[in-house]
Design a protein that fits this description.
The chain is mostly helical. It has one domain (about 5-15, about 50-175). It is about 75% helix and about 0% strand. It contains 8 helices and no strands.
């Protein structure tokens, strides 16, 4: 079962994103303009992950809202350009929001394994970036927790953000300049 912190984060995230549109399915044929936009967004997200990593390394807690919105945005964009992620997050009459409220909320550890398996079927860089984004959600420190627990959570969050930064950068680099002109 997910920790109380994960449950709280998922509930807050769900309340905030109610009414947000689900990502559109990935196009059958990649559009060079959309690929350029996707590449640019991956660069922006990688930069933001790096900023959050530095804050975390300075022993400052990021808020649940900050991490939650960031992860939701990352997952939305990743799944809009990856068939496997899109199908997983938007299956069984659910969307990304419902996925976070249900499968991820109650089975977050199992979902890390699922993301690794999806990486074998789809784009590994994008699927593993989704894994690290979800991993970040699992380790948002809470100021009400004892200092030792916050330290453990910050270390785990930093590791997830470092992996996410690396994978988002790689996702941007995988889109060749020739593909987007």
């Amino acid at each position: 079962m997910a920790s109380p912190a994960t449950r709280t984060l998922v509930l807050i995230l769900a309340l905030l994103v109610t009414g947000c549109a689900a990502p559109k399915p990935p196009p059958a044929e990649p559009d060079p303009v959309e690929l350029a936009e996707f590449r640019a967004q991956m660069i922006v997200f990688a930069h933001k992950a790096g900023e959050y990593l530095e804050v975390t390394r300075r022993n400052k807690n990021l808020s649940e809202l900050t991490v939650g919105w960031f992860v939701f945005d990352v997952l939305t964009v990743l799944s809009s350009e990856d068939d496997v992620l899109y199908a997983y997050f938007n299956s069984h009459d659910r969307d990304l929001q419902t996925y976070l409220e249900t499968e991820f909320r109650f089975h977050s550890e199992t979902e890390m394994i699922v993301m690794e398996r999806l990486a074998l079927r789809g784009n590994p860089t994008r699927c593993l970036a989704a894994k690290f984004a979800l991993e970040a959600l699992r380790h948002v420190p809470h100021s009400a927790d004892p200092a030792a627990i916050q330290l453990v959570d910050r270390r785990a969050l930093a590791a997830a953000l470092a992996g996410l930064h690396e994978l988002l950068t790689a996702a941007a680099q995988e889109i060749e300049v020739a593909d987007v002109h």
